[in-house]
């Protein structure tokens, strides 16, 4: 199964992708995670992307399309994948069609996650994660069970993303509505767009996604 999780920053794409990995046994391809790894490793791509990401703007189509094209060649993508944060522009959506068409494949589902702006800003402002294992937490509800200790690895260092601040979040939202929201129409016209109410609690959103995916099969 090849699916896209489409939605604004903080909609819950990463959270839901992680649940789908277990459910369907296919990998999550997050361009945000791949770019952050490149920034940490100070690769050529990372050096180009760093400032752009800190400003909340979009990294060039050329760079992200190449990253995804390379990633879907990996053997673990043979049975499908979950695209999280890609495509984000019409050029990226066209490139996705071309990549898959060249392999005789197609997208199965594009799931639009709808969440109100105030909620997005609140979620992003509260997000933090374990510096060691990456487990995600939020000031608003999903805190570690033992304060200051990661539930998963038991260590005590937490980090916040540099772009999770109110000013950068405003730019990220503008980028979404200007560059990415047009993909809703693009995929609607292809007949593969479904939407879920991303305002619901995490487990309910996960159930709704599972229903949408199974109904379409
Ligand atoms: P990226 O990493 O993709 O960030 P984003 O799209 O801004 O999305 P987020 O990771 O902020 O949110 P999410 O929807 O995954 O939400 P999450 O599940 O974490 O991109 C970062 C940057 O990289 C971009 O700005 C750009 O510069 C660059 N980039 C990446 N891809 C690119 C591309 N294709 N083209 C060009 N540039 C690109 O949830 C957020 C928080 O809310 C968490 O704390 C979570 O626990 C909580 N939460 C989740 N769901 C719920 C719920 N239902 N109820 C309550 N809380 C919830
Ligand atoms: Zn941890």
From TrEMBL:
GO terms for biological process: AMP salvage. Its EC number is 2.7.4.3. It comes from the Bacteria. One of its GO terms (cellular component) is cytoplasm. It catalyses: AMP + ATP = 2 ADP. GO terms for molecular function: AMP kinase activity; ATP binding; zinc ion binding. Residues 30-59 are annotated as: NMP. Zn(2+) binds at residues 130, 133, 150, 153. Residues 127-163 form the Adenylate kinase active site lid domain. The keyword GTP-binding does not apply. AMP binds at residues 31, 36, 57-59, 85-88, 92, 161, 172. It is found in: Cytoplasm. Its main location: cytoplasm. PANTHER family: NUCLEOTIDE KINASE. This is Adenylate kinase.
């Amino acid at each position: 199964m090849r699916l896209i999780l489409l939605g604004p920053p903080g909609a819950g794409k990463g959270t839901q992708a992680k649940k789908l990995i277990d459910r369907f046994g296919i990998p999550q391809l997050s361009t945000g995670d791949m770019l952050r790894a490149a920034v940490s490793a100070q690769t050529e791509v990372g050096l180009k992307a760093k400032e752009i990401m800190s400003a909340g703007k979009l990294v060039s189509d050329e760079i992200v399309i190449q990253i995804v094209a390379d990633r879907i060649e990996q053997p673990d993508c043979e049975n499908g994948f979950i695209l999280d944060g890609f495509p984000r522009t019409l050029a990226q959506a066209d490139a996705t069609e071309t990549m898959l068409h060249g392999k005789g494949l197609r997208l199965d589902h594009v799931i639009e996650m709808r969440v109100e702006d105030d909620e997005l800003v609140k979620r992003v402002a509260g997000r933090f994660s374990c510096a060691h294992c990456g487990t995600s937490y939020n000031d608003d509800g999903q805190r570690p069970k033992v304060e200051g200790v990661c539930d998963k690895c038991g260590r005590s260092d937490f980090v916040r993303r540099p772009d999770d601040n109110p000013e950068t979040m405003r730019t990220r939202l503008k980028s979404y509505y200007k560059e990415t929201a047009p993909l809703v129409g693009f995929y609607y016209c292809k007949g593969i767009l479904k939407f879920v109410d991303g305002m619901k609690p995490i487990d309910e959103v996960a159930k709704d996604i599972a229903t949408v995916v199974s109904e379409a099969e």
